[in-house]
Task: structure prediction
Amino acid sequence: MKVRKDFGKTKERIFYEFGPFRVDARERVLRRGEELVRLTPKVFDILEVLIQNSGCVLTKDELMKRVWPDTMVEESNLARNVSTLRKALNERPDQCHYIETIPWRGYRFAAAVTKSHDASRVIDSIAVLPFINESSDSSAEYLSDGITDGLINKLSLLRNLKVMSRNSVFHCQARNGGTLPDAETVGRELGVLCVLTGRIRVAGEIVLVSVELIDATDNRQLWGAQYNRQFSDMATLQETISRQIANRLQLNMTGKDRERLSQPHTNNTEAYQLHLKGRYFWNKLTVEGVRKAIDMFEQAIEKDPGYALAYTGLLDCHIYCNNPVEARKALAKALELDPDLGEAHASSGFFKFIYDWDFSGCEKELKQAIELSPNYPQAHHWYAIYLAHAGRHGEAIDEAKRAQELDPLSTLMNQTLGNTLMLARDYDGAIDALQKTLELDSHFAAAHSVLGYVYTFKGMYAEALQQLARVAALAGGNPAIDASIKILTALVYARCGQATEALQLVERVSRLPEASPYSIAGVYAALGEADQAFAFLNRAYQARSFQLVSLNVDPGLDGIRTDPRFDDLLRRIGLPA
Result:
């Protein structure tokens, strides 16, 4: 039996009603009359699958595959969530008004379900799948990737359209064995209502491009077109396709929207192709790839010194290589050339926050980035981090969720939610978010590290040490990471009452050049040695350590917050006391 499951947020509101309950599928909420019944995401998923297959027996295996796709889970997880759902429906174990257990098989939704629709359906979300290179020349891969990136960037400028990030789209492809999944699968995994697919073929100086816009709910073609263009027309072709998609989806575009869509970043064909090659190598996110990307972007700038996007590419490369001086130069030039480049303003906000300690300037830049590029997940990610460190936790969590919504398969965006919840002292919520992040990539060392930190403050010391051991295994002997793990291990010892072991370890690691004085201060704070803690915090201040922006919200420093020296340090950094 094929189990139905409608995924994604849609303007078409679908309602399911049974007994006194009403499910809003778009908003993913359950109500009993006017009362909201709170359900966790997985419990809601189970309810949705059951009511969409009312009257049918669903095996445990079918339910687990639909609710936990691509994840190995124990049957006990399903049973526990079904039990939670029964309690939410006010159903006792000896009753089966709604959920009937079929011994040895699974479950059946026993109540009659009525389905209704809100007729006003508007498609307002899209994923641009990687264009397929049908040329025999593999070197044209940069062109197919470049057109994909260009369309994502162009469509992201439209305020009424949610556009999935490149990262999540390519991750979706990777999760499906490297092949392009159908539109319905993409819609389910990324929560979008339509998908754009494309193919290119290079014939001499002519590029043949075909595109299809597909409804992700039923794989229907909404629109399609074919183009024969010169290489020199590739930039304007992206504007043409973006405008035609906006018209087909009946998006309300302002004059500013049309202007931004039609504005080319360069008129130099060679510079444009070099930029596409630079992005192609950058997206590999390897040391060798980034070095090649730097060369491509620098060549693009030589061909067109006014090419702001090429400077933005160079900026991203220098950030990856931890070259803040060179990155700052590229950033300044990008903004000089194009003051409305949202990605550059987002990077500017990050620099002001981390390196300049200009917190009001940081917020101004990040707000402007989001205004200019509302679909840029990195801007929401950085804004969430800033808000969390400013103690504005509700706003921070909202921004983290927005970043996650725009890039749902990104480990970084998912981890951001865990970080913001941790800084808000919602440790249980942080653990849940970080565990979900690791479901996406169990080798993501940063999430293991933060999870170990959270476990420490939950008093789950054995679990904390397990996470730190996992980070050590993944780091492969990196000296800076190794020093960080030793410091965090000393923190665990300090908080669990093993003061002697903590002191011996922190004294040993503090001699290492890679050791962070800020992190060492947290160990001494946990040991109750305030003088030593402030000595190391002052060392961090002298080195202008970027970690000091965490001073006001880091739970590791709670033990010394009442000391007058703490407020003095906050004042020197520019943080509110």
